[in-house]
């Protein structure tokens, strides 16, 4: 992909990188996303992307940006342009940019452990179709969400996003995982194993994962035979069958790892965890658990992503997907710049700069530049009257 500004910064950085450069690099990525737009409009995609970028870095809405700035169009023409986004070309572009960023810092000759996960983005508003959203545990004042399937690798001390796919209303987990893995298989590196959470514990999903690489995931404990195998005092390796006698029957190597709670979450005593451990039959349960624990960094990535998620109540799943893609692109750009340009080289690796945080340094820096360029309002007209008579008691 043609990213001349980013290429120059990554290959020949100046002594310092400015907030204005960070904003320019971010827009360079976003402007690769095709937006047909409206014929005859005085706007162009750059005008729209600036508004979207400001909404993302400030975790606010397009309406909030256009209302509080002097140099942006009104909300209506911006949203009209956003409604011209076409789902598949937009999604392909987001994934292509993610891949370009990831491969700028990944070794092509090294095999990788890929992490698969499902992420829920809370839904506020009224959908065009009731099948557009999924249900989740209550969060942010709602139980409705749009769901996305994502793939990561842990590299350079951070989770790099490889691919993202929406989980539409009629999609099964297996459908979504299959689409994500199809994108990951286009990468030039080999996949040595796949880590996933308990959502993998479905016969059909296991089959999809195994077709690409050996999966490792914790098992669900609802089955009597499985509970019996987990009711032990010492770690051991065995095997178990899921969906026995059914279409998607799978027999998997089971690693039963026994540890102590040690007061974790107020619990004490033995803690027994079972892992489906394909390809790790020669490892100990403790080694299987250590391999799976690498996946825990994904939650940190989601915390970062949510710092760059534009707020919206639009019923359009395409626009919501676009905002999700923008959040992941900004996080990926931050990781790449942090490691490639700002980390201090040293023997055995690079020292990441602790001061270049995603929120306070990267996002807030871009926000400040956009506030200047878009004319963020610095004063607001008052009523010239203040409190009505009798309402100022206690103010001294």
TrEMBL record:
PANTHER family: THIRD ORF IN TRANSPOSON ISC1160, TRANSPOSASE IS4-LIKE DOMAIN-CONTAINING PROTEIN. This is ISH3 family transposase. It comes from Natrinema soli. The lineage of its organism: Archaea, Methanobacteriati, Methanobacteriota, Stenosarchaea group, Halobacteria.
